[in-house]
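Morning F.,

Quick status update on the modeling queue. The single chain you submitted on Monday has been processed. Sequence for confirmation:
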Amino acid sequence: MNYFIVTNNPKVKEEFKNMEFIEGSFLDVLIKVRDLVYRGHELITHPLGASIRMIYSPYRSIIIGRKNDIDSFHIETIENSILNYKKNMEVRKPDNKNKNDYALIDSELLKSGLEEHLENEKICI
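Structure tokens below.
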């Protein structure tokens, strides 16, 4: 496997083995991913997800590729994602009232992103 998942979603922790669980917030996941990108890993899924509504989720799962090259595009993407997240969260708090729904949505989006990534790997082989 040339990927792994960085997540703070307990549902994803139960379902997947190839992942790093973060005991923390959505922002903590973004920061961990940023640190990995600066070490040469690549983003496979976008750090901010499918819609603006998902930015209010308490959970986030991001697929990271195992790589050894630092890529300026991936650095710019994760840095801008952190800035956008902080900007949006200045006026709003995470929606913990609906956290179970967000956990399910995040998990389903992750599965979809993983399926697409694995399909693309087959095409490249």
